[in-house]
Amino acid sequence: MVNNGCLCCTVRGDLVKMLLELVKKKRDKFDHIVIETTGLAKPGPVIETICSDELVSRYVKLDGVVTMVDSKHVLQHLDEVKPRFVVNEAVEQVAYADRIILNKIDLVSEDELKGLTMRIKHINGMAPIKLAKYGSVDMDFVLGVGGYDLERIDSEVHIDNSCSSMHQHGTAQEHHQRHHHDHVHDSAVSSVSIVFEGMLDLDEVDDWLERLIEEKGDDLYRMKGVLSVTGSDQRYIFQGVHSLLDGCPGKTWGPDEKRINKLVFIGRNLDETALRKGFKGCLA
Ligand SMILES: Nc1nc2c(ncn2[C@@H]2O[C@H](COP(=O)(O)OP(=O)(O)OP(=O)(O)O)[C@@H](O)[C@H]2O)c(=O)[nH]1
């Protein structure tokens, strides 16, 4: 437990100290470190501490962010209007998640659950969602997530297009529900996914992502992608959090495999049209 029990940006020093103490003194006694933040914690600074603190990142690797959602009460938190420049922690906790557990599903109706799932996917179209009662989920769902592991992203990049504003699928009823929903309490935090067959110029992609990070880094919470690039038989994989970007070649494309690019961006005030245009500008 960190000193005051609250894990937010102001106690990052405590977190660093605690993690270093654990890895130095008790390294052989554990496989994973599970950090449970308070309901009011902002995930960004915690992620940043683990990924970019020079000392910490030498010893520990971030496996993933798991967000437990209280299905009965979460909407009131997601809808809470905050003063300007103050983040809504509930929205942020959903946005940064690599895995989402929708708990207490016994306390909501099926329709409520459907609406809630759509709301969550609108914010985070990347994280697999598991429905649960009393927090009961398989250990595999919460440990060994590999949310920041490029090899895992290669095989598992999960893009849920069902709530992207430009998707072509879904029933008329879903469309209606979504539009009505967005209208009532649209959130500035959302996901944009791009799924597109074709070949990309990797230099152009590098330039595009670099520019994007420079201009919108603060607003870009998470991004992941599996790309098909010219001159290579291998996929190109990237993942990022704010201005930290990581990429490398991944698995080889099969001889008859469709070379489909899949990208997902989660962030605040994302300009979907600009993102799609930027992507298309990288096509070879
Ligand atoms: N009906 C129902 N009750 C649940 C479920 N999961 C947890 N509870 C109950 O909810 C109560 C605690 O809820 P929470 O406040 O969400 O628990 P918590 O996450 O430990 O609390 P904080 O960490 O302080 O946010 C306990 O009485 C649990 O038994 C569930 O799936 N269904």
TrEMBL record:
Family designation: Belongs to the SIMIBI class G3E GTPase family. ZNG1 subfamily.
Keywords: Chaperone, Hydrolase, Nucleotide-binding
GO CC terms of this entry: cytoplasm
Domain CobW C-terminal: 189-283
Gene Ontology MF term list: hydrolase activity; nucleotide binding
Transmembrane segments: none
Protein name: CobW C-terminal domain-containing protein
Catalytic activity, reaction form: GTP + H2O = GDP + phosphate + H(+)
Segments forming a coiled coil: none
Pfam family, one: CobW_C
Domain of life: Eukaryota
SMART domains linked to this entry: CobW_C (SM00833)
